[in-house]
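Standup, Tuesday
Yesterday: got the pipeline producing structure tokens again.
Today: sanity-check two examples.
Blockers: none.

Example 1:
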Amino acid sequence: MRADLRRLGDLPVRWVVNTLAHYDHTFGNTRFGPASDLGAPIYAHELVPAHLDAYERPMLAEWIATGREPKDELSEVVITAPTVLVGDTTTLDLGDRVVQLLHLGRGHTDNDLVVHVPDAGAWLVGDLLEESGPPMYGSGSFPLDWPATIDRLRAAVTEQPGAGARVLVPGHGAVVDERFAAAQQWHLQAVADIVRDLFAAGIPVDAAVREGGDRWPFPAAGMLGAVRDGYRQLLSMGAS
């Protein structure tokens, strides 16, 4: 990652932002943070440390214990928590521009952070949007909240002043626009509605994906996480 950054120039890395807590967004922290030669502050949402403890640390331990590849790289990982915790909004002054860090709600996780670069019309949205494949309902997702969070993202993008192009950079895949976000929001809402219907019908988790049949807007193989975490949300709200 550091070698790739050098293609953009020889300026030092002075700030790091974790857009969420999952391993592919945080396991490189040790190469940039206070214990490294760069010593950069690592910004992340205030719930990231709890997520690291609940999900990423035990997952890494299991991977190492079971010999998951790449063994050598995994054994070198030192899970490094962020050093600057962000609530709903924080503004970074980079000298020649400002960058806004925004928590718009729960979705892919409860700690999704959006990086907005106003003068560039750019929105780095982490895994709230994915272009290279369907959205991932991984550890700690909130399927029922996700559509509303994308709605708030779209509203923020639309309300941005200026007539320049606005681009959204997903955590995986190519740069997209607001129309892509609208389409993905529609599909996320469809998933949320199906999960609610299955729960209300008393369909157990292990049968729900099959019962959803061809209603799922995404491949059924990825819907178990949506059902699992959607049911968890409904149970926590006392739904029946």
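Example 2:
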Amino acid sequence: MRDDVIEHFLDEGLIERVLRPLKHGKEGSVHLVRANPRTTGEHLAALKIFHRLDQRDFRDESIYRDGEWIKERRVRVALEKKTRFGREVQGAIWVNREWETLRLLSETGVAVPRPIEATEDAILMTYIGDEDQAAPRLHEHRVADREEAEDLLGQVLAAIERMLFRDVVHGDLSAYNLLVWQGTVTVIDFPQAVDTKKNRHAPALLERDLRRIGEHFERQGVHRPWSRLASDLWTAWEFADLVPEELRGMGPM
């Protein structure tokens, strides 16, 4: 755990102490913290701390940065050559992309953790679960029956549709970054999210997201034409005909 990162959130009066680790991944780790309800509105929160630069497992993210124009030539060159400075920029882009995506989707009403505060190395967000148990990821969740599987899939598809409505494709969606708590699905992990208006790979990433979700639910006996679903969603987005179910009938937005 990075004490230098924790110190900022303590000094700002956002958290009171770290309770326990929740998850350790390639890019960082997530910790359950006792939050200050006066400054965050929460008693518990999740603090996602990204690893130091020399410990981060940066995937080849050129596919995710497609269409993102960086004005300064020296920054573009540094990113291409993966210099120390380039890695610092890449790390900042990674964190900022997740922060901005969480803000947009949270304000839109997508079931994602609400972002509270961010630094160059960490994001403080709302926590899904209770003090005794964190919400399990979808791949860990034991589905009771076919009816529950259908309901969970419906929530996932609704989230994908609403994200697309706001020009966002998750880009790395699977049963490993969906949480299930008290029957509700929450989408997490957005550093690789792409803007559908800019990124040429967005349709392929959308189809990959749906196929990965499909692989999980097919093991639960739930089948859909995943590629056709992706194609239909993308066509609806292209023709500005994509309106999430809960917004239909409400007139012009």
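Quick observation on example 2: The longest strand covers residues 15-24. The radius of gyration is 19 Å.
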